[in-house]
Amino acid sequence: MKKIENKENITSSQFFVSLCPVRSSQFSLNFPNASVLNFAKISLNRFLRALTLSFLMKTIQSKERGTVVSYAFIDPRTTTLQDNALTISDPNNLLLYVFGESFDTKTVANDGQWHSCAVTWDSTDGEWVFYWDQQEKIRGNRAAGEHLLPGVLVVGQDQDDLGSAFSGIEAYSGHVAEMNLWDYAMSAAEVQRLSKECGLVGNVISWPELHQHASKGVVSEGIAEPCAGSAVSRDQQDDVLCHDASNSFETRARCSKRVSACSTSPCQNGQACVDNGDGSSQCQCGDSYEGRYCQYVCAKNPACEICLSSLCDVDDYVDECLTGRHNCSHICVNEHGSYKCSCPQGMFLSDDGVTCLDTSYCTDGPSTYLDGESWQRDCELCSCKRGVVDCSPIVCPSVTCQSGEVLSKKPAQCCPSCVDEPPKCTLLRNKTLTTFDGLSFTLSPQNEYTMFEDCYYGNFYGYVSYDKRKAIVRVYIHCLTATLYSNGRAVVGDRDVQLPHREDGILSLDVPEGGDAVQLRTHHGLVVTVHSNATVVTSLPDGLAGKTCGLCGNANGRARDDLTTRHHISAKTTDEFLVSWSLRPRKPKDKKHVAALCSKLPHPVAKNAIGKCKMIW
Is-above-0.85 flag for pTM? Predict the structure, then answer.
């Protein structure tokens, strides 16, 4: 329950009937067939603690369960539809629905004769009464302490959704007239008088209003037969006849408040009874009470908007649940100064405090799992526990490797395993490189070299260079570039990344044991480690023996062919080999010079010569 900051006296149109002249009620509505296109629909924007619904009807409908009238609303406390808040259906044997519960009235209505029908309900004790032709047929109790909330009244159709979702099997065919709705429960004597009169006006919904909201399929006909002989002049002092459309607004407004003589003490909760001086009496309700007999405990300030089930205190609070001023997904529970959300059975409240989740299943990304089901997500074991996904890291078993084996874990693996120790290419801080097959030579720190390359599948290649004493290794794999620095920096693409870092199972970057290096692992099994002392160690994945090239060689177990150039020929010297794998900048003037030398040659010869020059470049 939230405090209202605006202390001004609020006047809402929901508490007052229109001051405009009342249209003529001398007509009946004919629903010619049981079609979902035939209806009269009107919205109600009031909170009702009591009601009287009265109308005339005539029908011979027998095939369908025709619905004469239905009222539905969305309960803001639970955000659910109450589609049969007040419904009368099936002329074969009229059923009355009150707040979703059905009652057999044992009334046959499809005899082709005009009949009067009325229903009253009072939230004080939830008592409802059904009348047929001025006689009480059945009564009961339902929804004590509740409100009939703002919603939609439809004549001729049952609502499976608010004001819509009509069904042909439940559509009404027949006549309806003089349908009115009042905001208080009339007595049996008043209902008997009411059912005999025409031309009256309800103070919530009036019959002339419904005429304006009828669909095109509904036919407006002349005055109903029971109303043909209605009196022209009415006694304004009569408790029922004072609702006549010809009376002034003031007279009709006082009419709803009339009570029996003050001598009978009709007023409740100790409220005063006053004589109006015109032969009528009414209860004078204080700020804390409302209703014809002051029977409802209300807010002290009209800013509270509705009559609540308990007193607003002096700070003027309003029920957010009842007025829909909450964001609960299912059930709103009012509290003093606030509200809280709760959930129906089989659901639980999520951490946001407003959303209810189903405990029978869990959603993890695009997948759905039943309660109690388990699955693996990346390197975590997950289970569904009453709607909540619970995950924990996979615990890897302890592994001891044999001689000649090393512990290895690829990015796609969760736990390391023992593999044959792969061949290693080592580049020391003094620029001495030892190939996979054991051949050693020294690099020039001024150049950038192709250190290793997958010359068979083309899956990866790596370059090494130096910035003063800092070693830099660039590895290319699947359109990704990872750059490792001996100072511990790691870059993917053009952005620095924090370690550890993963790229969708393609590669991972981490700090190995010892903490003095940065290490790259690919899903193929390639491992490149750049140490803080500028030492670079590269190990190959399984299955690439004899299929690599670059400074590190081909890993075929024979050192004698390690000095193989980029052009797949044996170098005569180490310098020739190093120049072949050096990434020297190309000079545009050399290209122009070559083109000029070949300009006088036949085109096929020139093209062949230029191609060979490019290979040597």
Answer: no
